[in-house]
What we know:
389 residues, Aspartate Aminotransferase, domain 2, 7-stranded mixed β-sheet, 5-stranded mixed β-sheet, binds ligand P1T
Amino acid sequence: xxxxxxxxxxxxxxxxxxxxxxxxxKGEVVAPIYLSTTYARQEVKKHGQFEYSxxxxxxxxxxxxxxxxxxxxxxxxxxxxxxxxxxxxLFTLINPGDHIVGFDDLYGGTKRxxxxxxxxxxxxxxxxxxxxxxxxxxxxxxxxxxxxxxxPTNPTLKVCDIAAISEIAHRHNVLVVVDNxxxxxxxxxxxxxxxxxxxxxxxxxxAGHSDVIxxxxxxxxxxxxxxxxxxxNALGSVPSPFDCYLVLRGLKTLSLRMxxxxxxxxxxxxxxxxxxxxxxxxYPGLQSHPQYALNIKQAxxxxxxxxxxxxxxxxxxxxxxxxxxxFTLAESLGGVESLIEHPxxxxxxxxxxxxxxxxxxxxxxxxxxxGVEDKDDLINDLEQAFNKV
Length: 389
Ligand code: P1T
């Protein structure tokens, strides 16, 4: 049986899927996909371990145990998408009139969700450059409820000091949420650094194969866990048992994949940094990155996401992107195959131009999700596309 003091590589394979994980299990090594939506009772007033699959499902039960373990958290919850996790969390935590402080660079869909809540529930949001913790503190109001961070951010890969911000937040009784999608729990554990709640788009590295949309929340606080779990059922924002199975399977190779994503990303970042048609490269694993040292301090790696600005503007970016042959021009990230996209026109098109400018998302910005293919094949493809610009 895997224990919490086993290494990440061991926990990501075993936790939740121990053969004895369910009462009455037959010793199966892989958690079965429990498709049944409902569970028979012996007595009218009493149900067994499971009642109805929205409130609890054995395959999801196995996965949620693993989620908790990977982030060194007491509790894990699975959702039908990253945004379903985020919406359930906001629904649970935020009341009309509350104030949220967020990193000025966040996934566009997260900002779109914030903007919806802002209008509907009259909440206020301050987006600040969280690379400077003092700006976070300066943004606090008496009604500030939570801080929402990504580190590194999507898509400009800014890194913030999670421990320092958590310390400030807790002095003011404010909760810290970290979206840990970009580094995955293999490279970074925000709860260990002091954050209260971690959210993930499982769709990305954790599932890892571009075939599951999923989300997760991990946390230590029992009372808050019970409230979120209540709303996971009340809102019905749950993943399917088949998707849970795919995530349990994908997680078994997370550490192997992340190591290769990272070594390929570093090679590509270094190649781009020396390219005459590139203005600047954003990758926390480059010594030129402004928070290179901070990322080393708080994380075990830099991840597989690289962004860069091509010389010129939108025209050159589009020409470059449409000339690639091996990279797939598509939104999303974290799968084994390399993807590339134009944030201003694709993943971050749902937010206003002003918000994009504040976050530093220029029309020349290109975001790369470096896959686990052969790095020379990837670099050759980039080179032939640059030659066409
Ligand atoms: O797509 P979904 O599983 O709902 O997750 C939303 C989400 C949340 N947080 C981060 C940091 C994300 O990057 C995402 C989704 N991002 C993309 C689809 C993208 O291409 O950036």
